[in-house]
Amino acid sequence: MRWALLAALVLLTGCGAPEGLSSADDRLQVVTTTSLLRDMVEQVGGDRVRAVSLVPDGADPHAYEPTLRDVRDVVYADVAFSNYMMLEQHNVIKTLDANLRDGVPNISLAEDATKYAAEVIPLVENVNLDTIWLGLRARGTGARHGTNRSSDVLLSAIDVKGPGAMYGYLTGTFGETELYFDSSDGFDAASGYKDDTATLPADAHTHMSWVFTKPGMYTATFKAALQVSATSRPLPLGQATFTFAVGVRPPAGATVLNQGHADLTADIDRGRLLALYDPEGGGDHTQTEYEADDIVIEVPSKAIAEVPAGREFRFMGRAGEQIYQLPQAVLGKHVHGEIDPHLWQNARNVMAYSELIRDTLIEADPEGAKTYRERTDAYLARLDALDRDLRRTIAAIPARQRYLITTHDAFGYLGAAYGIEIAGFVTPNPAVEPSLADRRKLSETIRNLKVPSVFLEPGLAGRTTTLREVAEETGARLCPIYSDTLDDTVGTYEAMMRFNARSLKRCLS
User: Fold this and answer.
1) Mean of pLDDT values over 469-496
2) Which of 119, 396, 74, 124 has the alpha carbon at shortest distance from 282?
């Protein structure tokens, strides 16, 4: 059956497609999720491997959607490497896991490299919002149900009562919107509420915007289910009704969630739907549990906004109409777990990746063991030299000027390893015009710290208007930095890291 599918895919992808993996190639066929991992495999494997990445050079691994060509490469693969820790778009992981042949090694480098002394950093979410940041979460492993990283948790809105409509939506990296919940057109039980359902991997959470069209008290009922595999029947995980006070005073005596970070949470292991709340919003993930009936979520008058212009926002009404909005705190389609997945920003972590890649290739191709060991030893020596070069280059920046402001929260490892303070990151929200307070805060950070430059990722530079405008207002220079992908300018991991260090030194000194 799988090979019949493959034959169809070959016809569909056509003769003009770029070279991919092939059963006619004597080399070990390796598929990776990102171009950075592909380069690492090529450094270790050399001529004994043929490696391709599912996410093309220059594309965003957080948002990339796999193609039929990607499925074809996965089917031919002898070995697969992903970063995981929820770096990649979930559909990339599902494409990988669903189409690999039985017995093919499928390695999650960020998770397994800790055995080789890779260091991991918890994600810190300190967004300093004026209103509560409300997200969605799937908590637990679901091990007793046989859950794996391709499993889905389905969170469905099934009823909303209130004076107006309620919407829940995500704004993607490039401004596109993904509507999860829409009470304006009712809820269709016959379809399994598929038009009002958000999907998360197990043990993950996501950020989103919530909109209410009129002030007053609302109740929103949600249900959750676990779908272990694409063909399995969803397992119920509970149902709950949450109350929102929109532009009105919450009821006296109620426990009010009105600041910090909260998640509407499907607990997979206990089969419950509840709220997790951290009033500080500091990212230490010690949230208090609340039953839905025991809390009121406040959407205050200061959350008043206007429907932005643009076809993608018409579901909320006409541009300029008043709405109440809890904004999406970390913008872009950002589904993640508790650990920062960008381990490679510390070169010593890539040394751990390389050793794991070496051992995996040796297991799949024992005849190449000598080659893989020799190439890995040489690569480790270069990575050690790279690490020392990065420290030396960044240390040359005056200490009082080592502040990094970017558009993407991807440089925590760089900061921790090489002495750069992450002073701020901005992923602009095309759905909502930044407030004067937001712009003033960013401008004051740049002025107060006397930050000479801010950094844009080349692949996103054309879509980062907020940081560009603030840089112009403050006189800060715009400089390039790479985080997740290679391109024609930086074709290898080593080249990317040296480019970044030189850019930091040139622009911050």
Assistant:
1) 92
2) 124
